[in-house]
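tool=predict chain=A
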Amino acid sequence: MERTHTDILKGLVSAGKRWRYGEKADNLVTRRIVWELMHIIKAEHVDYYLMAFWIFRYSVQDINYWARGAVSSSVVCYCLGLTEVDPIKYGLHSARFVNEDLPKFQFDIEASRFDEFMKRAEDMLQANAEDFDITAIRECLFKDLKPSSYLSKKKERPLPDDLEDEFARYALYFPQTMDLFAAYVNRYPKRDILIYQEQMLNILKEVFHAGGTKANKIRLSIQRGETEQVEAYRQELFASSDLPDEEKEEAWKRLTSNPKAFLKAHAVSSVLASYKYEWPENFINKWKKIRGCNDGLAGVRNADGRWGFIDKTGRLVIPCQWKRTFYFSEGLAGVQDDNEKWGFIDKIGKVVIPFKWKIVNEFHNGLANVQDDNENWGYIDKTGKLAIPCQWKRTYWFYEGLASVEGNNENWGYIDKTGKLVVPYQWKEAFCFHEGLAQVMNADGRWGYIDKTGELVIPCQWKKALFFSEGLVGVQDDNEKWGFIDKTGKVVLPFVWSNVQWFRNGRVRVQTVLGGGWHDIDREGNDVQ
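tool=predict ok
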């Protein structure tokens, strides 16, 4: 009896399951595979997965590639060898990739062999033209392939086990979530910050018992801002839940707290790629955790749970002796001792600021914000002297000589480096100055920009706003589209994008469709390569 394409895919996944998880895989692995295969077969997507396997694992297996985006959410893709990210280990959800939509395969391809890859992939398609709809498969598989030079440096080595902090920082370090990034690096515990789309799915499944496909649809409606549909989902979920109203409201509040929640699968795959391809080979197996490099040094944690620092060659330059550490900035790094107090060391590991603070942050403009035992924030200089007394509930870094601080009335103002209040407490949120202007939010939740005197130079009219870079800034209108304005508030690029970043070297990354691919434009709005 001739085997069908479905039979072949099931056989490949079964073999891949033994390869990835051993002969006695966990029940969760089996359940995930059964669920994914059921939906893949129901959606008639079997051929896409089969051809992806034959192209990547056979036709071009000697060319380096790395999966991006939601590919790493799929246990089937992991078993087929299409991704090196284990979705079970990192808590990723199948429904972000396996659903009724066509699978969105996204891959980086070794740049020096990209043309060769495309030719060999096309040859594989043509060889199977009689049995497959190669036009549809070509559109699906080739739509989001990107030549990437970093893949020429591939190193075969294990990856660190504990990188959750790196994943979170990667996911939040975008213009539209810089407020959450600041909250993340300043807040303990950090579990109350919703960062990922996968966290949204967890809430929907664990609290409201929504199935995987239904949970993903609700998540998508929330992130798209479909107000009426979201409210309909809320009423449906609340009506079917036996939880007390207070608990349901609290869960819903958390679920909807970050409509820009990031796809964790993409954060994981991106961070792991940087370790697998860019770091020196001679030390990667030594450390339980590695933090990104800043000021030429990267934090590492050993098997005993102690932190130290390595340089760019992988040499341990500061022994692993600290309970916790922060990044180096302006030549100093915060470290925590066994008494859970924080101080600062220099680049040779010498303690230059004693251990006396409950929490510290990084140095900017010569000052670091620190929290005392009363949970009030102030600033110290590089000698450890308390330059500005601890008196605020929350503070941000100094930039361009000013820092935003939250007063007792829960409004924000700005202080200078002497601690003098130079902009009164009048804003519901206030961020750092860039190019002489800072974004501020009024009581109505609208964003505008002030100068260093506190004068509102661009009225509070935008739903969201980023920071200025190269004289322009991205702002979001009431239709949730992004455009760009100049320092007079004049619109210079229309509101047509679903997401934007900030300008660097005359170009900026924009996203036409939320969740879609990014591309670069110049200051006139023209696409650039």
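The first helix runs from residue 5 to 21. The chain is about 30% helix and 25% strand.
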